[in-house]
Amino acid sequence: MSKELMNNIERKINSPQILNNSIQTMIDIFTKFYGEENRDYITEKFHHMILFSYYDEKDLEKWLFRLKTNISDQFLEEVFHNFEIGTDENERKKHTMGLPIYSFEHYPINNVCNYIRIAKIKSKEEQEEYARLKLYNYLKEWVSDISYEDFKDKKVTKEQLDKLPLPITKSNIEYYLEFDIEDVIEFEKDLSVEELEAWYSDVTPSNIDELIQEGTFDKLLEIGDAFQKKYEEYHTNYEKRINQYEAILEKEKELHDKIESKYYKAYLLETKKYLNQEDQERIDRELASSETVNIYNVSLVLGSCLKDTRCIDFFDEASEADLKNPTIKEYRKETIQRNRIRFFQYKGINLGNHYEDYVNSDECKKIWPDEEMLTDIRNKANHYKNKANIEFYSSLPIYKEAMKRLEGKDIMVKGEVFLPYIFTNKSICVLTNMEKKEEKNIPCPVLCLHIENDDTDDLDLIHELNHIFEYTLLSTDENIVEEISGWDLIKSRLASDSREPVDTLAPEGEKRQYELLSEVVNELIAEKITKQMHDNGIYIIDDAEHYQNSGSCLYTRFEDLIHEFIEEYWDLIVESRRNNNMHVLLDQIGKENFDELADLFTKVNERFMDNEYEQLRKDLKKQVDNDAVREFNKYKEKIHTIFMKMKEYTNSHENKSLSS
Amino acid sequence: MNSVNQIEIRITYPINTNKNIELFVVPNTLKVYIHGQEKEIEAGMIDRLMDIICKWDYEYIDDSVLDATTFSVKVYTNSGMDRYFGSGKYPDNFDTFLEWIRDL
Fold it and tell me: Beta strands B4-12 and B80-87: pairing type?
């Protein structure tokens, strides 16, 4: 299982190359589904698209965490199973003398057993040699150009030390370089006593060696040796591969913090006017002399970072509404009041801890933060958050690789205009774009795929590819585009000016008339195509052996409501979604009926979002009778009525055709 | 924070090598229990936690994320329980919340 997870991570990281090498496979998959007669059409479409898959440092962190947890569980299980020790933690502790086992990587038993092995060696010189060799062997894994003689003479450079990934082992080697090997051994002895004495209170630094020689810890050492062996397996199969990704992760996190800090300071310079004079001067002094600004009052009023909550935020309209709302719990009101009091006390008005005294105070009224002030601070925070997003994401190797692939293409919407937005919002979508070729504008849609999940990456890919397959360009005029996506006619202006920084925090646009209904259908088509390809043994990003489709998706959660419509008119539905063919469906079911269905379906989705949907799902399962369930059932009946009207329309349409 | 009896925090999120984070904060005794281990906490830390979560909506859900990382913060008071929950989606200041936990 761990091997598969490791391979899975590497497949995700290499997804840009995998995808771009799989275009012919995608063409074949879609041709198999839509028919050989559509091969040229599909080939043209897919050869013009731009494929862009990506992940960020949080995704990588999650994958590595999951992998290491899995390795840990697997290896712990295997070690204890060999000693016929079960999974109960307390039982395991009896065998490990109380030493906890947090994970495969972090277990004090390893440190203690290291010392026991040293202490079992009779001569002092041999002990020192053993300990020194152990440190050297670890260093050698990462630093090939160092001899044992140089290591004994402590000729290790800073550059060589910096190659060591694990901070604990690096610090052990640094300790050895600063002191002597016998100090390292002594240090390990003290640590071991500390670890053991919680369980075995008789152990002390002066008697631990004797206890070791007597065999008191032999059983522990046996288990420790088994762990050691497993660790070597981990070292051979995983450690280097994991460490290289952890090193990348570390660098990206450092970069992230550096950029955040830079723009936080810029934000402070523009908002410090809301602070007391003294703090404004302190900010100027700190910015001049150090990398960070760490002033309590500044954090309090303006936040400790761009995304932090500020006490100023509790003066907003939402907070005011909460204070007046009798259903809001006391602790929320207390928090609002406490922050408001803090602000006034910061401004030098101290009337104690009773909030009403501040509300009634003329002095407070004079400096009560108004909407203009709140908006100014909020806008400046967002402005610098946006800049931080753009700078961070455009520094990532995967971003630079994407930009390189766009080089040489004369595309209308440049990479620097859409990529930062995609990264910030983790979008999975198709973006309209045009490429100028021989004086013509050729559609080159950009397929953006956020690689995050452990499965269904293929389904996400196929979903977006199907959008591209169905896409119809009606006209272009400069950067105004008229196009059909699914069933929606869209007229839009492409953002082609790359001089203005993109707004990575801009909210999504409103849903189009047929959009939600269209997405359900697109997802259903994608599921069929994905199933067909997987049944034929074709996998692009997903892992062939361990693929699991959980079957749940935002778009299809209300599929049941329109199931009869989908089943009855499936072939017409599929045909209507490309080449401006919507009429083939509408001629059969009536435009009015279709519009009514789309509107109602959108209403249901908007009514039951997020927590309401979760609650509804539970209530429907338990057959609860409440207002929400009754409301939902009314929608269900109305949709069924519309379906029956569609059938009536179809029948009357067929009768007319027969009679004419 | 007199009106809060207990705050229960659970996260499945990779901020350290433990699989899940489980904390119980008891404001009145200024104690926090991390995986069963007791630790003292300053009143200021509790205020800070309240500042962070009181600007949250009650739910942040992205259904399209199939194996989502989840968090749950339950605030127990004499008049009932508020639950802040997220699955695949997080409040804007979630990093600050994680920093708060790391600081413990």
Answer: unpaired
Contacts of A449 in chain B (CB under 8 A): none
> Which residues of chain A make contact with B4, given a CB cutoff of 8 A?
331
Name which of A313, A311, A315, A302 is nearest A267 in CA terms: A302
What pLDDT is attached to residue A280? 92
Which residues lie across from A480 on neighbouring strands? A477, A493
A104: pLDDT confidence band, cut at 50, 70 and 90? low
Question: Please, which residues bridge with residue A476 across strands?
Answer: A481
CA atoms of A466 and A459, how far apart (whole Å): 10
HSE toward the beta carbon, residue A445, CA cutoff 13 A: 24
Three-state SS at A9: helix
Q: Which residue has the tokens 């299980």?
A: A77
Burial level of A370, CB count in 10 A (0-12/13-18/19+)?
Answer: exposed
What 3-state class would DSSP assign to A507?
Answer: coil
Nearest to A529 by CA among A585, A431, A454, A456: A456
Using only C-alpha atoms, what is the Rg of chain B?
A: 13
Q: Give residue A654's pLDDT band: very low, low, confident or very high (50, 70, 90).
A: confident
In angstroms, the CA A72 to CA A99 distance is 16
Confidence of residue B16 (pLDDT cuts 50, 70, 90): very low
- Residue B5 Cα, gap to closest chain A Cα (Å): 10
DSSP label at A540?
A: S
Separation between Cα atoms, residue A285 and residue A342, nearest integer Å: 24
Angle between helices B43-53 and A330-346 (to 10 degrees): 110
- Name the helix (H) or strand (E) containing A302: helix A296-302
Radius of gyration of chain A (CA): 32
The angle subtended at Cα A493 by Cα A487 and Cα A496, nearest 5°, is: 130
Q: Across-strand partners of A197?
A: none
Chain B residues whose beta carbon lies within 8 Å of the beta carbon of residue A463: none
Report the complex ipTM: 0.88
A540 HSE (CA, 13 A, CB side)? 30
B49 part of contact set with chain A, CB < 8 Å: no
Q: Identify whether the C-beta of residue B35 lies closer than 8 Å to the C-beta of residue B18.
A: yes
CB A614 within 8 A of CB B61: yes
Distance CA A85, CA A76 (A): 10
Tokens of A427: 């979008």
B102 close contact with A: CB closer than 8 A: no
Q: Which residue of chain B comes nearest to A425, CA vs CA?
A: B89
- Which pLDDT belongs to residue B15? 45
Q: Which one has a higher pLDDT value, A294 or A406?
A: A406
Other residues' Cβ atoms within 10 Å of the Cβ of residue A488? 16
Please give the pLDDT value at position A491: 83
Angle at A306 between CA A304 and CA A307, to 5 degrees: 95
Please tell me the distance from the alpha carbon of residue A640 to that of residue A634, in angstroms, as a whole number.
10
> Is A557 in Cβ contact with B17 (below 8 Å)?
no
Helix, strand and coil percent figures for chain A, each rounded to 5: 65, 5, 25
DSSP A212-237: HHHTTTHHHHHHHHHHHHHHHHHIII
Query: Please, what is the average pLDDT of chain B?
Result: 80
The DSSP result for B43-77, as a single string, is: HHHHHHHHHHHTTS-SEEE-TT-TT--EEEEEEEE
Q: What angle do CA B61, A484, A497 make, to 5 degrees?
A: 80
**Whole-model pTM?**
0.78
Tokens read off for A481: 């585009």
**Helix/strand/coil for A33:** helix
Return the SS3 of B70: strand
Torsion over CA: A307, A308, A313, A317 (sign): positive
